[in-house]
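Before we proceed, please read the two lines closing this message. Tell me what the token row says about the fold.
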Amino acid sequence: MHSLSPAFHLPVLGCWLSLCAAESFFACPSSCKCNSGNLEVDCSGLGLSSIPSGIPTNTRTFLFLNNKLSILPGAVFSNLSALQRLDLSNNFLDQLPQNIFSDLGNLTELQLRNNSIRALDKDLLQHTALLRQLDLSINGLAQIPSGIFDDLPALRSLSLRSNRLQSLDRVTFEPLTSLQQLQVGDNPWECDCNLRDFKHWMEWFSYRGGKIDQLACTLPKELKGKDMRMVPMEMFNYCSQLDDENSSTVLDNTGPPCTKGSPTPSKSKSGPETEVEPSVGCPQKQRYRPVSVRRAIGTVIIAGVVCGIVCIMMVVAAAYGCIYASLMAKYHRELKKRQPLMGDTEGEHEEQKQISSVA
């Protein structure tokens, strides 16, 4: 039996080495599931409290759902520059380091749903310009920092549902020129002057074809349960007055800043200690509240009724004037036909009597 020639062994050895290199290049972390075809690493539902080491550098999808992750080290994703999809939903994250996503320049989808995140740094997404989908729903966010979306021109879908948001600033959302879908429901929205400008942005966003779910008001009680987009703009007329008063207050306040307490100057070291008394120069600002919806609608109805009555009265007066003018013209025509010859004083007296009786 003839042995195989060395020329045959070389291609087989090359294929075997390349296969081993490919397998080692996409080595799967222990207890995780990996798919070398689409370069996906799935470590979901394993009860893990930290990101496992040994994730291949060419991974495009990393799934880490339903675990016990509470802390993310700052450089945990530093070697995953090819990552496109990252899902950390259903964990216990309460904060995110400022530069946690700084090395993920190819990231297009970021899922942070159902965590305990209470605050976001404005530079958190500074290096993720290709991001298209962002889910921050079911967290503890009380505000969205201005400037956090400035570097996301490709973002199409954003979810802020089920947080603790009470107001939003339209300046924060104006850089999202590609946004198509926004979810803001299930938040304790306070529909006051702080939300007025965002209402304008929502109307513009809907006008250009964007989809947004219901933004139901929680406060004030007159608007509870109503969609902010359906609230008449007349409800916020008081905001202009509030802005004018605030601006005049800033111009008039040339003295020291107002404080809750002002200590009285000390008399001497041997004297009694000074006590802090409340300052009388800090009057409590009255809180403006929007007018009632019923009152606004009632004002419109009353104004319409008054205008209608005035119009009817003008029409009746015009008709009466026309009728009176036609009767007088007819009377003068008949009077000319019956007018006696010139010099008949008796006819003239009779004409004057008839005119006076008609008047």
